[in-house]
Amino acid sequence: MTGTRQPKFPENFKMKIITSAVMSLLVCFGPSFVFAQEDHAEEEASLVFTSEELAAAGITVATVSVESLRETLRIPAEVQTNAYQTARVTPRIQAQVVNRHAQLGDHIERGQSLVTLSSVVMAEAQGELIVADREWQRVSSLGRKAVGESRYIEAEVARQQAFAKVIAYGMQDEQALDLLQPGNATKAVGNFDLLSPIAGTVLMDRFVTGELIEPGRVLFEISDESVLWVEGGLTSNNLANVEIGDPARVSVNGSDWFDGHVVQLDHQLNETTRTQAVRIAVDNLSDSLHPGQFAEAEITIGPGTPQIAVPNSALTLVKGFPVVFKLEDGDEFHPDLVEIGQVIGDWTVINEGIEAGDEIAVEGIFHLKSLLLKSSIGDAH
């Protein structure tokens, strides 16, 4: 395009594809090669494709534009559970495991029964509740005037305290109310269920049926893994550059990336590593990330600077020099030498060689390069 300053090709970059004769057309499955003569002195290689051949080769074309790119910071990190969406289920009194209703890896709904426990302490509290409830029912039916103000209040408070005790010990309101239904007094044997306070996945359940469990021991850890935390450490060189809300992405294998954003910055440096913890929230609806995995986190920082840039996939090396394939005249691809700048995420800044508005191949570059090198070898012979 007029006005674009092309970098000068080094002498050893002539690629052997400049020739004084027109090459024969390739016959089988592929584009033909033609050469447009320039000033009758030397000829420049071009690859000619039909639309059908483009589709078959997986070649995609895009228009070069000015991109507002922000710098990226890469740090090692680790996938963690989201503590704000995690719950640990523990008994509040000594109890024995009667039956489990969930196991490791199960998806649990909020309010779902996890385990049935049995406790002598609970049995006593259940009995006290039934007695207190029966007394309250009799006193309230007689009325405040018939039994007297003091006895009426005493019976009411006794019933409320007995109900609160079994709830504090681990029963749910519905379980306690069911115990008070007529004919259910025989159920006061100390059994009760622990229910899940949240919906999520069982991450830990280290106990066996029949085991005696002490108060406060964690029986289940349940976490909603739809949004996980990824935590890494920032050095003193980049502490000031990262802010809450900065976009980020995370990968555990270097190829598959998951979008997220910075949600927290620790206000205290790690005394051992002298780094400041940064926490990234990542959507995990696909259940591809799991707590404990090591990861690489990429945080986008700083203000965006408008620059001519191309996708990394559009660049290739020929004879050790960076090249893009520019589309001209609607069907001809020409290898153009470019001067590259900074690589920012999936984009590479182009300092010289192409300009905004040029059309270049952004996918299928390996196929174009293979054909180019094949033509070079053929011309050499």
TrEMBL record:
<protein>
    <submittedName>
        <fullName>Efflux RND transporter periplasmic adaptor subunit</fullName>
    </submittedName>
</protein>
<dbReference type="GO" id="GO:0022857">
    <property type="term" value="F:transmembrane transporter activity"/>
</dbReference>
<dbReference type="Pfam" id="PF25954">
    <property type="entry name" value="Beta-barrel_RND_2"/>
</dbReference>
<dbReference type="InterPro" id="IPR051909">
    <property type="entry name" value="MFP_Cation_Efflux"/>
</dbReference>
<dbReference type="InterPro" id="IPR058649">
    <property type="entry name" value="CzcB_C"/>
</dbReference>
<keyword id="KW-0813">Transport</keyword>
<dbReference type="GO" id="GO:0060003">
    <property type="term" value="P:copper ion export"/>
</dbReference>
<dbReference type="GO" id="GO:0015679">
    <property type="term" value="P:plasma membrane copper ion transport"/>
</dbReference>
<dbReference type="InterPro" id="IPR058647">
    <property type="entry name" value="BSH_CzcB-like"/>
</dbReference>
<dbReference type="GO" id="GO:0030313">
    <property type="term" value="C:cell envelope"/>
</dbReference>
<feature type="domain" description="CusB-like beta-barrel">
    <location>
        <begin position="228"/>
        <end position="299"/>
    </location>
</feature>
<dbReference type="GO" id="GO:0016020">
    <property type="term" value="C:membrane"/>
</dbReference>
<dbReference type="Pfam" id="PF25975">
    <property type="entry name" value="CzcB_C"/>
</dbReference>
<feature type="domain" description="CzcB-like C-terminal circularly permuted SH3-like">
    <location>
        <begin position="308"/>
        <end position="369"/>
    </location>
</feature>
<dbReference type="InterPro" id="IPR058792">
    <property type="entry name" value="Beta-barrel_RND_2"/>
</dbReference>
<keyword id="KW-0732">Signal</keyword>
<feature type="domain" description="CzcB-like barrel-sandwich hybrid">
    <location>
        <begin position="85"/>
        <end position="224"/>
    </location>
</feature>
<comment type="similarity">
    <text>Belongs to the membrane fusion protein (MFP) (TC 8.A.1) family.</text>
</comment>
<dbReference type="Pfam" id="PF25973">
    <property type="entry name" value="BSH_CzcB"/>
</dbReference>
<feature type="signal peptide">
    <location>
        <begin position="1"/>
        <end position="36"/>
    </location>
</feature>
<dbReference type="InterPro" id="IPR006143">
    <property type="entry name" value="RND_pump_MFP"/>
</dbReference>
